[in-house]
């Protein structure tokens, strides 16, 4: 009898799962068959970048166009693709033994006028920066060789002293509340001093530094997967951080921030592997109102926000590992969002980013497909329509 009950229970769970999948495939009433929107034209940059897990883009060679950088988890590789100005890309590998390459970030670390690279290696337990010598020969410099499970890195002037600091977070594969967030203070000569911010999270997935409370210093937003939370580490101005929870958000995976409602303060956008894309309206004094953008976007690995249709408001981008999808949600100006698909065959879509890659004054989209081993960009033909 117990066995029959168990079978019935499993059948019910399966039917619920199938129903949820069906609902997720009709998330957009204007595009129920999940056909890609013709506004975006796909261009493959790389098709054999093993375990492509993160993508970023800035001008790395100082020629005025936007180049692309990527991290390959299985290939243990950090690479960049040189844009010839006509969006023909030539690959340049920087390192091929960066064990569990997870994140790459482009920024001028040493203040010499060219862009360098910063990376995190999960299995290598490393935070690293590569100095651009001005001729795109990259010299490796260690920031930390002992940051176990280094899962995320970001670079910004955290202490407002005019140089670029580095921020990192760990993901312990053994689980448990022992994951760290740290920042490395740049002394102005690229000697980095480590400061631990937090050491009691369970699987940090993403960080985003921004002045969320408009008091002139850099706070840090966190997506903490194991804790199921979006949190804020509030900076007191002297880099002492106090954490508070913005939202209990199961399987939180990515966080980003911008002014979503054009009211002059910074709002928050986040994604959950459980299938949620949300934004939190900043009401001031640590009060945030959660708004659901989508509740049926399974495997929502990353999220970004930009004005994709050039109508003056902020739209939202997301990647779905489960549905192999890159999609965007059009903001009608009143923060009502309608989904449009960019790609429905981007295998294990894990990373999404937006930038005007072809310099035609509209925002294009970049993505990394983990199992597809791809780095791809989608040309926004808004200005050609």
Percent range of helical residues: under 10%
Count all strands and give the number.
Answer: 28
Q: Main beta sheet, described?
A: 4 strands, antiparallel
SS strand fraction: over 45%
Structural class: mainly beta
**Number of continuous helical runs:** 1
What is the average per-residue confidence, as pLDDT, rounded to a whole number? 91
Order of helices and strands: HEEEEEEEEEEEEEEEEEEEEEEEEEEEE
Radius of gyration: 20 Å
Question: Unreliable stretches, pLDDT < 50, 5 or more residues?
Answer: 1-32
For the record, give the distance between the C-alpha atoms at the N and C termini, rounded to a whole number. Answer: 64 Å
Spatial strand arrangement across the major sheet = 1-28-27-26
What shape does the CA trace take?
A: globular
Describe this structure in words.
This protein has one helix at 2-24, and strands at 40-46, 52-58, 67-72, 77-83, 89-95, 101-107, 116-121, 126-132, 138-144, 150-156, 165-170, 179-186, 192-201, 204-210, 219-224, 229-235, 241-248, 252-258, 267-272, 276-284, 287-294, 300-306, 315-320, 325-331, 337-343, 349-355, 364-369, 374-380. The chain is mainly β. A four-stranded antiparallel sheet has the order 1-28-27-26, with no helix packed on it. Strands 2-3-4-5 form a four-stranded antiparallel sheet, with no helix packed on it. It is globular, with a radius of gyration of 20 Å. It starts with a helix and ends in a 5-residue tail after the last strand.
